[in-house]
């Protein structure tokens, strides 16, 4: 059970990091928007 929680939180933080990277790359490609 605890291992499942750890995996879920890890997956969530990984998604957040990927989303941040996506936002940053989008901002660089379209600096005006």
What are the SSEs and their pairings?
Blueprint: H1 2-29
- Mean pLDDT across all residues, rounded? 83
Rg value: 14 Å
Q: Helix segment count?
A: 1
Q: Percent helix among the residues? A: over 70%
Span between termini: 44 Å
Sheet bearing the most strands, described? none
Which band does the percent of strand residues land in?
A: under 5%
Number of DSSP E strands: 0
Query: Runs with pLDDT <50, length 5+?
Result: none
What general form does the structure show?
A: rod-shaped
**Class by SSE composition:** mainly alpha
How many domains? The number is 1
N to C succession of SSEs:
H
How would you describe what is shown here?
Residues 1-33 are annotated as: Disordered. This protein is mostly helical and 33 residues long. The protein has one domain (1-28). Helix content is 85%, strand content 0%. It is built from one helix and no strands. The relative contact order is 0.11. The model has no long low-confidence stretch (mean pLDDT 83).
